Amino acid sequence: MLRIQEEILKKLPKDKVSEVVFEGPLIVIYVKDKELFLKGKEIGAKLAKEFKKRFEIRIDPNLLPEDDVIKERIEKIVPKEAELRNIYIERARSIVIIECLRPEKITDEILEKIKEETLLIPKVKRAPIQSSKIIDAIRAYLYSVSEERKKLLHKVGEKIVAGWGTKSKRKWVRISILGAGQEVGRSAILLQTPESNVLLDFGIGVNNTGPDAFPHLDAPEFDIQKLDAVIITHAHLDHVGLLPFLFKLGWKGPVYMTEPTRDLAALVCLDYIKVSEQQNKQSLYSSSEIREMLKHTITLNYGEVTDITPDIKITFHNAGHILGSAMVHLNIGNGLHNILYTGDFKFSKTRLLDPPKTIFPRLETVIMESTYGGKNDIHPSREETEKKFLEAVKETLSEGGKVLIPVLAVGRAQEILLLIIDAVKQGILPPVDVYLEGVLWETTMIHTAYPEFLSKELKEEIERGENPFEAEFIYRASPKDRENIMNENKPAIIIATSGMMNGGPIVDYFRLGAEDPRNLLAFVSYQARGTLGRLILDGAKEVNINGELVKVRLKVQRFEGFSGHADRKELLKFVSKLNPKPKNVVIVHGEPPKPFELASGIKSLYKKQNINVNVYVPKNLDAIRLR
Ligand code: ZN
Q1: What 3-state DSSP class applies to 174?
Q2: CATH of the domain at 321
Q3: Residue 94 Cα, ligand 1 centroid: separation in angstroms?
Q4: What count of other Cβ atoms lies within 10 Å of the Cβ of residue 293?
């Protein structure tokens, strides 16, 4: 037993406690006494104050009623208007997950009653508006490995409190750039202190091949055996795409991310396997490593301060980029040095998300992205872009044409969808059928399960029961519907992956509709060199799709301004609003000369305000000592 466990036991009636265990950063006390269990909140709060840790008091699993008794009682207590969908009992951890469509209808009193009558700790989760295979599969899988997760989380927790009560004399903080140094893709940063080794993101070089698709695992300071934790900012492949591969290499430790990021990450990684297979490429990992990733994931909400190693506490904050995307604030050595790693972010309000905050209790170093940090990277305003987009869509529909919109599975798709839904409701667009396919349908359903990660307005709408994604003209299409949709003499909007047309259903829709001049191919995101999307955007008159020559006669238009990234103006505004002002700014995630142009922008900005700042634009394999 660790010293902290002994100290905690001293505060409790010994004969009534079965064990004190760790569940990652949480300390869980299992008790043998109903009275003590029902007073759990009070006891937990008292202990939290004393030990500066989070506590939860649960009943010894041996004292639990039978599963069917529990279910029956819960079904009786949960009010009809909450629209109960699923009950998952995790006996090993004495908790129950109650999944319903309207969790806001379950009050604290109801929860208290469930606790009293089942002796379980109830956790309420929102079900997506229509069944989502991936959410069902992930949740069911996690409950099925409850016992194993309990052991695993205990080990993680033991490591976090190791050395509790002692102080280390050595003080230094260092980062190594393993990927996304002077490039976009394969984001990975190793953060090291005398006591910790932590990875920030672990992405794939999406448009690279061979070793350049991987972060630099050959960096001398990287040792998978010494790694303590991995933190993932968001569910795009260039930030999370190789995480399952890390498990293939034998990694068995914890991964921290938000709950929507976990679901979306599983989905985009599964999709990555599928696309690799379709392209006859060997996938770097299989679904069993994605399950390992899920098993080792600890989810955190925005604003929740969490110990992840003996000397690092992290807090996630909204990044405004995609659903669940986070900036991570790292408090190292009890305030000795504080880092904000932005991941990808946007710094203005969108239909889907609020902009990130800029005020932090402490801040010495910012590690930030620079995708659009170049001198000329000024995006048109969102209003202007939306207007232009809707005009083009309206014109196409009125001519009887179809609108094809290539998108990434997460982010722009839902933003565009909300724009279209709103325009139809307001009569700006005529009534029209909108089709989504496969992975895109799933990611959209995931959005409906996590309103607390969406903009304030959207969250309120969903909690009032007015879910905008629930529009009756949105249809789920399958591959066999494609020909019908495209051949039917009726306007339609098709939103499909992949974003740069290097695979996915959009290619098929394009093949079927490319020769009809009434149709519109509307690009709403960046098209990299070498992709089919870029080829068409650059004006190709004929393209080869899987050996078939297709004439490009439809209208092609690019709409800038829908980006999920901050443009140069926003990047500089973010830095100027940061409070307190950082001493170091490390710029990553940008194609030269953009990161260098952003660096000079930041230097002159701070010079005007008479603030000294070190600005770094590291290459891959560069290391920076921050303290
Ligand atoms: Zn991203």
Answers
A1: strand
A2: 3.60.15.10
A3: 37
A4: 25
pLDDT score of 502 more than 90:
no
Residue for token pair 């695992």: 217
Q: List alpha helices for 34-145, DSSP H.
A: 34-38, 40-51, 67-77, 108-118, 133-144
129, 151, 166: which is the final residue of a domain?
166
- pLDDT score of 418 more than 80: yes
pLDDT band per the 50, 70, 90 thresholds, residue 164: confident
Range of the domain at 78: 1-166
Q: pTM for the full model?
A: 0.94
Place of tokens 């690092």: 312
- Quick one: 181 and 132 in the same domain? no
Residue 428 buriedness (CB in 10 A; 0-12 / 13-18 / 19+): middle
- Dist CA 86 CA 362 (whole Å): 42
* CA–CA dist 499, 402 (Å, integer): 18
CA–CA distances in Å: residue 361 to residues 358, 404, 587: 10, 46, 22
Whether 238 maps to a domain, the answer reads yes
Tokens coding 612 = 């000294």
Average pLDDT, the chain: 94
- Residue 191 and residue 339 in contact, taking contact as beta carbons nearer than 8 Å: yes
In angstroms, what CA-CA distances link 472 with 14, 425, 469?
59, 11, 9
Residue 351 and residue 407 in one domain: no
> What is the rounded end-to-end Cα distance, in angstroms, of the chain?
34
Q: Strand 337-341 and strand 326-332: pairing?
A: antiparallel
Q: What are phi and psi of 106, to 5 degrees?
A: -95, 105
Residues, Cβ < 5 Å to ion ligand 1:
236, 344
Interior/surface letters 341-373, b for 16+ CB within 10 angstroms, e for the rest? bbbbbbbbebbbbbbbebebeebbbbbbbbbbb
Q: Which two tokens stand for residue 615?
A: 């600005």
Q: How far is the CA of 337 from the centre of ligand 1 (A)?
A: 26
- Ligand 1 center from residue 410 Cα (angstroms): 9
Tell me how many domains the chain contains.
3
CATH of the domain at 44: 3.30.300.230
Higher pLDDT, 463 or 397: 397
Asked whether residue 577 is domain-assigned, the answer is no
pLDDT value of position 210 = 86
Does 536 lie in the same domain as 401?
A: yes
Domain boundary pick from 151, 166, 181: 166
Tokens for 95, please give them: 């908790």
CA-wise closest residue to 264 among 296, 304, 286, 233: 233
Do 498 and 555 share a domain, yes or no?
yes
- Whole-number Å distance, alpha carbon 374 to ligand 1 midpoint, is 18
Q: Are residues 87 and 214 in the same domain?
A: no
C-alpha angle with apex 483: 482 to 488, nearest 5 degrees?
110
Q: Are residues 209 and 273 in the same domain?
A: yes
Q: Which amino acid is at 260?
A: P
Clarify whether residues 121 and 199 are in a common domain. Answer: no
CA of 609 to the centre of ligand 1 (A): 31
Q: What is the pLDDT of residue 78?
A: 97
- How far, in Å, is the centroid of ligand 1 from the Cα of 204? 12
Residue 519 token pair: 């149709």
Q: Do residues 225 and 369 both lie within one domain?
A: yes
Is a pLDDT exceeding 80 seen at residue 310? yes
Q: How many helices (H) and strands (E) does the chain have?
A: 20, 28
CATH of the domain at 521: 3.40.50.10890
- Percentage helix, strand, coil, to 5, in the chain? 40, 20, 40
Mean pLDDT, rounded, for 161-184: 88
